Amino acid sequence: NGFILPKAVKSINNGLSDLDLSSQSVKIARVLLILLLFIFGGFITMGDEFIYLWLGKSYDNSWTIAVLIMIVNFIPISLGYANAILEARKKVKFKGLLSLISSLLGLSMGTILSNYYGITGMISGIVLFVFIYQLIMVYYYHYKIKLDMVMYFKKGLLPLLPSFFITYFIISKINNSIDVNNWLNLAFIFSVYVGVFCTSFVF
Asked: What is the SS3 assignment for 32-98?
């Protein structure tokens, strides 16, 4: 944010149109999305084995919790530039209030669910309301800040998904065919993952 915020302030001071700001946001988001998809794809295909080798069977639910947290933070991290524009325009009051309400509701829901599903229930309740919060913020960016969120999905996120799913499918097949019971096998699958991911996203 230390790099993105000054850029957003400069762009606004230079009088860039909402369309130009949207285009900048999508360009930055696309780079961030590729990095996020790389991390997320690696974790959902190999994270379970990594946790098992590192921590043992007693942390089986750690993978599920981590995946939920990753999913719900996907959009806000990739929209870092949009958030910087929000800050540059000094319109963070709504976001702060919405974040507070979502947190309180999420904690309340999580507390209720934790009585039935333990820590997974707690995280699920929080994640649910954080996700709702993010959807409202996307709406806010689009209609109040005048950033084209349709462009974000159409030119930023959606074009990357086919390559992501191809990579996921290939690595999952390889992972299922190899008994990942040691670090060497895990390192081998990771190296294959890097190669497949880079290839699929280049072509």
From this structure: HHHHHHHHHHHHHHHHHHHHHHHHCHHHCCHHHHHHHHHHHHHHHHHCHHHHHHHHHCCCCHHHHHH
- Asked if 121 and 110 count as a contact pair (C-beta separation under 8 A), the reply is yes
In the block, which residue shows the tokens 């599903």?
117
Banded pLDDT at 57 (limits 50, 70, 90): confident
Going by C-alpha positions, the residue among 149, 9, 125 that lies closest to residue 68 is: 125
Q: Are the CB atoms for 171 and 192 separated by under 8 Å?
A: yes
What sign does the dihedral 89-90-96-97 (CA atoms) show?
negative
2: confidence class by pLDDT, cuts 50, 70, 90:
low
DSSP state of 145: S
- What tokens were used for 113? 């669910």
Distance CA 128, CA 150 (A): 23
The model carries a pTM of 0.88
